[in-house]
Amino acid sequence: MKLLGFEFAPLLIPIERRLQTISVFYFTSTFLFMGFSCLLLMIYLLLFTKYYWIPVIYFTYYFFDRKTSAQGGRRINFMRYSPVWKHYANFFPLKLIKTAELDPKKNYILGCHPHGIMCYSHFGNFATEGSGFSKIFPGITSYLTVLNGQFMFPIFRDIFMTSGAVEVSRESISYLLNQPEKGNAVALIIGGASEALDASPGNYTVRKTGRKGFCKLALKYGASLVPVYAFGENDLYVQLRNPDGSKLRQFQEFCTHKLGFSPPLFHGRGIFNYTFGLVPYRRPLNTVVGSPIDVEKNENPTAEDIDKLHKQYLQALEDLFETHKVNYGVDKDDHLIFKK
User: Of 195, 196, 213, 331, which has the most beta carbons under 10 Å away?
Assistant: First the structure.
C-alpha cells in the first residue's frame, strides 16, 4: 500500500519475517545509539540522582577491565548462538561461502571487504553464528576487530565483547596471533571507516594505499592471509551522492580524519515501510572466503617483504572477486576498483 509517497508493508506478514526485521533493527539501533545512550545514562546517574554509586562501581570495574578488549575480549557462546542472529542472517539472507579449508593448526588474518555502511556481513559472519561460521570452519575461532572507541562506552562494551569482538589495535591483534593455541582467525575490515563513504549500490571500490600493517603482522607471526569479499554489502543502503572532491565528501573525510569514524548520509527502509528508514534493504549478502595465502614467519620483515606480500594479497582479492562476481549479481563488465 502506498501513501504520501511511502510504500507500507502489508499488515499480514509471516511472523518469521517480522522477527527477521526486528533482529536487524536491534543490531542497527544498537550500533548507532546504544553506546552514547549508555554513556549519557551513566553521566545522568552520577550527577543528577541518588544512584551515583552505580556509575562509581561500574567505572571502578572498567578501570581494572579496560585492557580486556585488547586481550581476546570476553566471548560468550550463548550470545553468539542466540536465535536473534539466525533471524538476522535470514533477513537478507546472509550466506558464508567457503572456497578452501582453514587448518586449525594455523592462525589467520581474514581481510574483509568492503566495509559497507555498517558491516552487516562481517558482523553476522564473524561476531555471531548466524551464518554458521563454526560449522563451516570447524576448529577455527573468529574474532571481529572494530574501532577501539567502541570499547570506551560503558555497558555497551561489555555486551559487544560477548560476540568475540576485540579492538583493531596492534596490541590486540598481536595478542591473538601470539597465543600458544592455534586456530584463531582475526577478521580485519581492511578499508576502515573511510571506505564506508564509497558504499553505494553498484560500487566495488576498496581502499589499499597505506594499509599494509596487517601484512607486517602476518609476517611477524606467520599468520596466513585470507581475502574475503562480501557481495551485496554495498547494496543495503542508498547514500547521498558524495563524489570525490565535492564539499560534502571533503567534510566527511575531515570528520573521518579527526574523529576516527566516517559520517555517511544514507537511508534504507523502515520497520513498517519499504521506502525510508534506518533498516537496510533486503538484499542477498554472499560472503566468499578465499584460499589462504601461507606466510612464512619473519619477526623482522623489511619494507620490501611487506610490499611483496601486500601485492600478493591484493592480487588474490582481485582474483576472488573476478572468479565469483557473476554468481552473485555483479555484471561481467564490472571490476574491483582499488582506491588510494
Answer: 196
Among residues 230, 243, 232, 241, the alpha carbon closest in space to that of 266 is found at 241
Q: How many domains are there within the chain?
A: 1
Query: In this structure, are residues 111 and 310 in contact, taking their beta carbons and an 8 Å threshold?
Result: no
Averaged pLDDT, groups of 10, the chain, 340 residues long: 73 92 97 96 97 98 97 96 98 98 97 96 98 98 95 96 96 96 96 91 87 94 98 97 93 85 91 93 98 96 96 97 97 92
Q: What is the pTM of this model?
A: 0.95
